[in-house]
């Protein structure tokens, strides 16, 4: 299986090459040259598999340069009850109104990014060892991505992680989660500035070709193909849990920001999984909802991105969206390149002529949710089911309730646990609430923290990295 770029100007690559890549050199995103097709007999056989066995079967269709026995061991070491809390890994439950919730949020950082990032940690270590290489990851985080990357890469041979976060801007829980890690290869750097400043420093270092080359600098952002392929697995797992037989169809509702999560759902559907509809749920940052309702894609600037109470969806340029548009346009890379030129110039584009195919062929629909909706949904689900939903998942449930048709089975993806967002839960409840936390995380805030505070300066970060790697 070879991988190609959505912009068509990159020579085909193997899985292991794509695994360590960010953007393709032509500015596009990498995708398999075709989607493996899953027939009825295979689907029937897969229904009985454990999560790790299923993950092996699915990923093995996309990966031909890691021997099957090694891949089986990598996924076996990734998807364990010890790491994900349950034997099912992504258990599915049903709310009293019939909406199903698939928990992707039981990993070490209590957010769905662990599902893919944990695999990436094992896969990176394996490929780097095989090729005698090392990798130094630099990233910027305002919360979820950075902690998921650190928990996935902690203690991994051949890898250092330098994670920049805005000094004093994260919640006490998020700080404790990242800064309490004591592994020698994890380096937390708090920048005296905002999240955007952290991101600018990462970009500046990425653009420093000599530095990048000398220190093997890489990233683990949401466009990484290794993350997408690992996410395809839980759509199959969720489908099997939510149905009694493969003659049934299921719709998935996905709290979305960078379009990475639901992009994996799109791929699962293209492979032949009986998905009826893919429901995109956004918050107040509703560029994707606008596209799926009108066909117009109008990404917004950082200045026009709202800070909301579902912060991991505060995104106005969905970095994985190009993968879907490539498929929508029959994989016409010339047209994709020209559309993204329009995006770069600030114009955006209009694909309203494609709306019937977007809905009928690809199954996409959408909705959005605002602060008041989120709080009302959190309150209502607590009243009816006695559980606190995380704010992102609440956005999904709100949209699923609106879009669901009679007889339609809808699985909402639970992308985080309420425990991470006690303030918003308390606001919804109208009094202080401490949502339940996994036992392993009791007293997290009391652990010693490891972080270096630096001024808002790329040079300061660069010299710290040079010292560490000297
Ligand atoms: C990252 C994240 C999302 C958004 O996922 P995308 O892949 O960016 O669409 C939603 N909810 C939570 C809790 C997240 O961490």
Give an overview in words.
With 470 residues, the protein is an alpha/beta fold. It has a domain at 114-223 and 445-469: 3-Layer(aba) Sandwich (Rossmann fold). 44% of the residues lie in helices and 14% in strands. The chain has helices at residues 15-19, 40-46, 51-62, 68-78, 81-84, 113-131, 144-153, 172-179, 195-206, 209-214, 225-242, 260-270, 287-294, 321-328, 333-344, 355-360, 371-385, 391-403, 422-429, 458-469, and strands at 3-5, 30-32, 92-94, 100-103, 135-140, 159-166, 186-191, 217-218, 250-255, 275-282, 296-297, 349-350, 364-368, 410-414, 452-454. The protein has a six-stranded mixed β-sheet, with helices on both faces. Strand 6 (159-166), helix 8 (172-179) and strand 7 form a beta-alpha-beta unit. Residues 111-113, 144, 222, 255-261, 312-313, 392, 415-416 line the site of pyridoxal-5'-phosphate. Residues 111-113, 144, 222, 255-261, 312-313, 392, 415-416 line the site of pyridoxal-5'-phosphate (PLP). Residues 104-331 form the Tryptophan synthase beta chain-like PALP domain. Belongs to the threonine synthase family. Residues 2-79 form the Threonine synthase N-terminal domain.
Helix-residue proportion:
40-55%
- Radius of gyration based on Cα positions: 21 Å
Taking pLDDT < 50 over at least 5 consecutive residues as the criterion, the unreliable ranges are: none
Describe the sheet with the most strands: 6 strands, mixed
CATH architecture of the domain at 114-223 and 445-469: 3-Layer(aba) Sandwich
CATH topology annotation of the domain at 114-223 and 445-469: Rossmann fold
Distance between the termini: 38 Å
Supply the CATH class of the domain at 114-223 and 445-469.
Alpha Beta
Assembly status: single chain
Shape type: globular
Q: What is the residue-averaged pLDDT? A: 95
Associated small molecules: pyridoxal-5'-phosphate
């Amino acid at each position: 299986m070879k991988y190609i770029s959505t912009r068509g100007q990159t020579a085909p690559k193997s899985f292991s090459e794509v695994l360590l890549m960010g953007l393709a050199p032509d500015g596009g995103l990498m995708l398999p040259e075709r989607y493996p097709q899953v027939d009825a007999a295979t689907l029937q056989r897969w229904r009985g598999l454990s999560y790790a066995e299923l993950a092996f079967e699915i990923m093995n269709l996309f990966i031909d340069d890691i021997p099957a026995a090694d891949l089986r061991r990598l996924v076996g070491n990734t998807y364990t009850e010890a790491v994900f809390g349950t034997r099912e890994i992504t258990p599915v439950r049903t709310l009293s109104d019939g909406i199903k919730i698939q928990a992707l949020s039981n990993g070490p950082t209590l957010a769905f990014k662990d599902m893919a990032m944990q695999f990436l940690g094992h896969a990176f270590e394996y490929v780097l060892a095989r090729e005698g290489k090392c990798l130094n990851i630099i990233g910027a985080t305002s919360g979820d991505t950075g902690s998921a990357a650190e928990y996935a890469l902690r203690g991994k041979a051949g890898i250092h992680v330098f994670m920049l976060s805005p000094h004093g801007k994260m919640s006490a829980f998020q700080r404790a989660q990242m800064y309490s890690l004591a592994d020698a290869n994890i380096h937390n750097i708090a920048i005296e500035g905002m999240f955007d400043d952290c991101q600018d420093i990462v970009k500046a270092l990425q653009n420093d070709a000599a530095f990048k080359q000398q220190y093997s600098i890489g990233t683990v952002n949401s466009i990484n193909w290794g993350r997408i392929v690992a996410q395809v697995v839980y759509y199959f797992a969720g489908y099997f849990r939510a149905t009694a037989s493969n003659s049934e169809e299921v719709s998935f509702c996905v709290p979305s920001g960078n379009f990475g999560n639901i992009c994996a759902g799109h791929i699962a559907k293209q492979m032949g999984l009986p998905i009826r509809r893919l429901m995109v749920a956004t918050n107040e940052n509703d560029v994707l909802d606008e596209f799926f309702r009108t066909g117009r894609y109008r990404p917004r600037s950082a200045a026009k991105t709202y800070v909301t109470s579902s912060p991991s969806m505060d995104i106005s340029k969905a970095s994985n969206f190009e993968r879907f548009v490539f498929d929508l346009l029959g994989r016409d890379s010339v047209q994709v390149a020209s559309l993204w030129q329009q995006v770069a110039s600030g114009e955006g584009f209009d694909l309203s002529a494609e709306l019937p195919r977007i809905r009928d062929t690809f199954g996409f629909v959408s909705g959005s949710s605002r602060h008041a909706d989120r709080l009302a949904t959190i309150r209502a689900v607590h009243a009816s089911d006695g559980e606190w939903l995380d704010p992102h998942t609440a956005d999904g449930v709100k949209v699923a309730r609106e879009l669901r048709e009679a007889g339609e089975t809808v699985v909402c993806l639970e992308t985080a646990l309420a425990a991470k967002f006690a303030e918003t839960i308390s606001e919804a409840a109208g009094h202080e609430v401490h949502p339940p936390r996994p036992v392993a995380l009791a007293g997290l805030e009391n652990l010693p923290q490891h972080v270096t505070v630096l001024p808002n300066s790329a040079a300061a970060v660069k010299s710290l990295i040079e010292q560490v790697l000297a």
